[in-house]
Amino acid sequence: MNPLEAEQNARFAALDPLLPPIAAPPAASEPLLTAAGGRKAGGLLTHVVHATGAWPALWGPSEIWDLTAVPGDSGAAGLAALLGAWRDRMRGTPAGPDSGCTLTWPSRDAEASAVLLAHGFAPMTCLAVRAAVPPGAPGPARVTVRLAGEGDIDALTELRLAEWRYTSLVGTAVPRPRARALLRAEVVRSLRFSGLVWLAEDDGVPAGMASCALASPSPGDSMHGRLFPGRWGYVDTLSVAPAARGGGVGRALMAVAHDDLLGRGVRGTFLFYHPPNPLSPVFWHRQGYRPLWTMWIRRPAWS
């Protein structure tokens, strides 16, 4: 571990006790070095291009430049210097409208938030965590909740499609021509591999679904450096049919899902939500989740 990483780990630990030590970025990263007030600040840039018909392109730009920032103990000034050096590095880059610059940073670092906003970034996604505590009351919903099966694929696909379409209005989802086929394939994968998919029905009519999984952060996966090691429950998707929203369907689904995940010995649960969404932040905070990391994006990318 180099001195900048040690300084940053110490700062993160003081900022939020749930932040794990930072993890190494992909090996193909390009170094970015600068200084602020006589203190060093560094980072690593990663460039990724997704085919527009691929799964990741449903949830963001097809071309992404991502910065793993390591300003050490230089604080907000160091982060501002890194963003300025990044902008200069990108000058002349042929970035189209379907592109973005991204950076993930601890949600509780208000000084960093001010810097990112000043550089044209917007907070688009939060990774939120919940302690392994008993679930809340399911609420007054009339629905019944059961594990979904292969016979529910069509209903689950429609519910996931409704959630994705809403997210395209208030989150990072991007309209793509193969969306239905990709979402249906993800429904099938979830049913066959995690098996933790629940369907809520109101008198036999699908009203909502929750898709979950178990995850253990390890080197090389996307959660390494975001969560402490151990077994976690992952809430992948919660979708309530538009006509059933506001009736307690989401609470009923999550009461069942949290109870099941808690029984599997997880150290906590996590999920992603979009701060601009007028529904999900309020719902998830009431469910006991709180932001840990915020994913910031500038769209389109600097050029």
Write the layout of secondary structure elements.
Layout: H1 3-15, E1 30-36, E2 39-49, E3 63-70, H2 75-90, E4 99-106, H3 110-118, E5 122-131, E6 144-147, H4 153-170, H5 179-194, E7 196-202, E8 205-215, E9 232-240, H6 249-262, E10 268-273, H7 280-286, E11 290-298
Parallel strand pairs: 3-4, 9-10
Antiparallel strand pairs: 1-2, 2-3, 4-11, 5-10, 5-11, 6-7, 7-8, 8-9
Give a description of the structure.
It is a single chain. Helix content is 31%, strand content 30%. With 303 residues, the chain is an alpha+beta fold. The chain has two domains: 3-126, Aminopeptidase; 133-266, Aminopeptidase, CATH 3.40.630.30. The chain has an eleven-stranded mixed β-sheet. The longest helix is centred in the middle third of the chain and has 18 residues, at 153-170. It comes from Amycolatopsis balhimycina DSM 5908. InterPro entries: Acyl_CoA_acyltransferase, Bact_Acetyltransf, GNAT_dom. Keywords: Acyltransferase, Transferase. Residues 143-303 form the N-acetyltransferase domain.
Features:
acyltransferase activity, transferring groups other than amino-acyl groups; eleven-stranded mixed sheet; 7 helices; single chain; Aminopeptidase; GNAT family N-acetyltransferase; Bact_Acetyltransf; 2 domains; Acyl_CoA_acyltransferase; transferase
